[in-house]
Amino acid sequence: MKTPFIVIDGLDGSGKTTQLKLLCERAEREGKKFILTREPGGAPLSEALRELFKSELGLKASALTQLLMVTASRRNCMEEAVWPFLAQGITVFSDRCDSSTLAYQVYAKNAPELEEEFWRLRKLVFGEYPPTTYIFLDVLPRVARNRVVGDDTRGEISHFDAAPLKFYERVYEGFRAFENHPTVKMYSVNGARCREEIQEDIYRIVKAECGW
User: Fold this and answer.
1) Count of CB atoms situated within 10 Å of the CB of 45
2) Any residues with CB less than 8 A from the CB of 192 and at least 6 apart, and which?
3) Of the candidates 103, 130, 117, which has an alpha carbon nearest to the alpha carbon of residue 16?
4) Neighbours of 120 (CB within 10 A)
5) Domain 5-210, CATH
6) Which residues are annotated as a binding site for ATP?
7) Residue 18 to residue 151: CA distance in whole angstroms
């Protein structure tokens, strides 16, 4: 059995960051071995690419340029911060991954011509070792955007956060397209409940996938 490589993903405002924090805290309390990474980022070169991607120049880049930037970051992250741990039998949790790329760089950017290329690049980057499991925090686009806009603790609102509702709707459509692809194993978790209920569902999935 492959060592679990589990991605937690969702729209901005889905509660993903909170749920990852709760997941890691619980796994630590139970003495489980794991590492946490993020995308874009997770390794020195990948983090440098993340900063470039999030810069004004990166945000103005075309859909194809953004797709190639995050794909390069992903490959470096796999080589340096994911595969070495999986080879040791250590579970990896990732805050976003290629699921977000399809949602944000293809669907949200209105670039359907890139969808086939996305799946081709995915196979090139991951080879025989793609994520084993994806967990999608399912929150409706309007709810997610209202959470983001009304959250005073987020500090500076990013380009993605401040996007109109139509943007969030396209992102949501992209996640659904990813979930329906035959090569993907994705669990959808209702993210509109209290955080404790959501966490119970997530941890149940993680325990089953990891054999904990």
Assistant:
1) 16
2) 138, 139, 140, 143
3) 103
4) 10
5) 3.40.50.300
6) 10-17
7) 14
Q: Percentage helix, strand, coil, to 5, in the chain?
A: 60, 15, 30
The tokens of 38 are what?
């993020």
* pLDDT tens per residue across span 153-167: 655 555 666 789 999
Per-residue pLDDT at 159: 60
Residue-by-residue DSSP string for 110-127: T-GGGHHHHHHHHHHHHT
42-91 pLDDT per residue, tens: 999 999 999 999 999 999 999 999 999 999 999 999 999 999 999 999 99
Amino acid at 59: L
* The model scores a pTM over 0.90: yes
Residues in the chain: 212
Measured distance CA(17)–CA(148) in Å, rounded: 13
Mean pLDDT of 184-207: 97
The Cα 91–Cα 93 span in angstroms is: 7
The domain limits of the chain are: 5-210
pLDDT of residue 31 exceeding 70: yes
Angle (CA) 192-194-197 rounded to 5° is 100
Nearest CA-CA partner of 13 in 188, 142, 169? 142
- Residue list for the binding site: 10-17
Residue tagged 């070495």 (tokens): 84
